[in-house]
Amino acid sequence: MKTPKGFWAILILGALWLGGQAQSAAPPLFTPVKATVPAGAPALRNAQAYQPVRVHWQVVQSLQPGSRVLFNLLDGVNPIGVVERVERRNERRYSCFGRLEGLDGSHFILVMEEDALALFVSVPMYEAVFDLRYYKDDLYVVVQIGEEPPCGNQGNETPLPFEMTPEDAGWHAHFANQDFEMAGDDDFGTAACTEPRAVLDIAVYYTTQARQAIGGANLMNARIQLFVDQCNEAYQNSQISLTARLVRRLEVSYSGEGNGDGSTQLNHLTNPSDGVMDGIHSDRTNYRADQVVLLVDNTDVCGLAWCGNGSDPERAFSLVKWDCTNYTFAHEIGHNQGCGHDRDNGGCGFRTYGFGWRFTGNNGVQYRTVMAYAPGTRIPYFSNPNVTYQGVATGVPIGNPNEAYNARVITETRRSRELYRLLDIWVDRSAWIPEIGTFDFPFNTVREGVDVITPFVDTAVLDFPTLYIKAGSYNETLTISKRMCLKACGGMVQIGAP
Question: Could you read off the pLDDT of 380-422 as tens digits, one per residue?
C-alpha cells in the first residue's frame, strides 16, 4: 500500500477513526490485499495514496437505511459510514447515500451495478476524497485522490451560433426565466395536479477506450450512475428544484479520441455532420435527452463544456474524463446550464451573479462550491447565499460586490433546458394552443400525447416514459403499442367513445 500523506497522518492518531468495539459493530466493506499496482495503471491516475482491496459483496448487498459499515479505506484510515438513504432501481442496481460518523460534512455515495461497484467518499473538513477503481482479477483499488486537472473552460467562452426555429424560440423564451414550486410526493393523486420539479434527462456516451480503461461495461455504468447521483446531491443541497435523470448510456467508437485534445473532442461530439460520432445526435433525439455527456479516457482536461443560457439545445454537450470523480460531471453540466467558475477564473458570463464561490468555514477550513477552482476543498453545493455550510453562506446575494449565485442560474434555465427533448408528455382536454406537450401547454387529446411519446426506451436505466392525463372524459378511442406509463392527474380519467 502507498501510505497516506499530510492530514491523514494526524487523523490516524486521533479519535475520529473509531476502533475496537465500535468497529466490530460495523462489518468491513473490504479485505485489504498485499499487491503492487503498476504506477502507470489507469486505476492509479492522480492517486496520492492507494490500497488494493477485495469487496465483501455480502455487505454491499445487505445495505439499507440505518446500516453501519466500516470503510477500511487505507491502512489506519477506517471511518464508519452510516447509510441514510437507498435508491433501488432493481435488486442488483441501487445507490446508497450516507455520512461518516464523527466527521462533520462528510458524505459518501455507493453504487451497485450488477457485478460492479463504485464508491465516492469525501471528508471536506480534512481535504480528503476517495475513489474506488477496478484493477484486475476482482481486485479493486481504494484511491485517495489528489488535485485533479482543471476544467477546460477558460475566460468567458460563449457557444457557437446555432439554428432555432421561431416556434422553438417562442417556447424557450417563455420558460427561460420562470420559476416554479416543486411538486410533493402526492402531487399526482386525485386531489392535486401540480407541476412537478424540472427534470434534466441525460444521455451519457462513453468511448471504447474509456470502457477498457475502467475495466468493463458494468463498471462504466456504475460510474455513470455515480456521476448522476452527484448531480442530484448537489441540486438538493443547493435548494435547486431539479432532478437529473439518466435516460441513455451507450458505448461509441471514437478512434484516437481526438489525439487527447479536449477542444477537438468537444467539437467532434457537438458537430452532427463531421463524420465523427454523428450517430450520437439521432440517438439523443430518439431517447429524448436534454443533455449529452461524453466520457473519454485520454484528454488534456478533466472536462470541457459549452456555456449555455437556457436556449441552446444544440450546445448542451459536455466532455468529462472518466476518472475525474470530484463533481467534474456536475461542474461541466453546470457550464451548459449557464454557470461560471469563481470570479478569478471566469468561464461563462451570461449573468453577473453566475459565479462559484470560495469561503472559509467557521472551522477555519477553506471550501469551494462545485463551479469554483482551487484553492479550497470542493463541496457538493452550487453557490447560494441562502444556504450555509460550516456556518457560512455558500454564495453572495445579488447586488452585493462579488455576487455569486449559481443555484439561481440553474433555477432560471432549468425549465427551458428540460424542453430540449420532451420525454414525458402532458394531456388536458381543455387545453388550447399552443400545444407542445408540457404541463403549461399540453396536448388536448390523448391520441396526440400517445403519438409523440418516443418508442425508444433504454430499459436498462428507465422503465417507461410517462403520459400525464389531466382529469376528465376523453371522447376518443386509440391503440397503444409502445411502452409508456399512463398517469391520471387531479382526478378520474375516462377514455373511450361515449
Answer: 999 999 999 999 999 999 999 999 999 999 999 998 888 899 9
Q: Which residues pair with 169 in a beta bridge?
A: none
Beta-bridge partners for 113: 93, 116
Residues in the chain: 498
Which residues does residue 376 pair with via DSSP β-bridges, in sequence order?
none
3-state secondary structure of 172: helix
36 vs 1, 50, 142, 143, 486, CA distance in Å? 7, 10, 13, 13, 54
How confident is the model over 37-74, as pLDDT tens digits?
Answer: 999 999 999 999 999 999 999 999 999 999 999 999 99
DSSP designation for 28: B
> 3-32, pLDDT tens digit by residue?
555 444 444 434 344 444 355 589 999 999
User: What span, in angstroms and rounded, lies between the C-alpha atoms of 207 and 366?
Assistant: 36
CB 107 within 8 A of CB 65: no
> Contacts from 126-131 at CB under 8 Å and sequence distance 24+?
126/7, 126/8, 126/11, 127/7, 127/365, 127/377, 128/7, 128/8, 129/325, 129/326, 129/378, 130/73, 131/323, 131/325
Residue whose C-alpha cell reads 488534456 in the numeric block: 300
Hey, what amino acid is at 288?
R
Q: What number of H helices and E strands is found in the chain?
A: 11, 22
| Amino acid at the residue 131 | D
Is the distance from CB of 356 to CB of 329 less than 8 angstroms?
A: no
Q: Establish whether 332 is a catalytic residue.
A: yes
Q: Report whether 369 contacts 343 (CB < 8 A).
A: no
Q: Residue 378: name the closest of 300, 322, 326, 324 by CA.
A: 326
Catalytic-role residue among 113, 127, 257, 332: 332
3-state secondary structure 151-169: ECCCECCCCCCCCCCHHHH
- Tell me 43's DSSP state: G
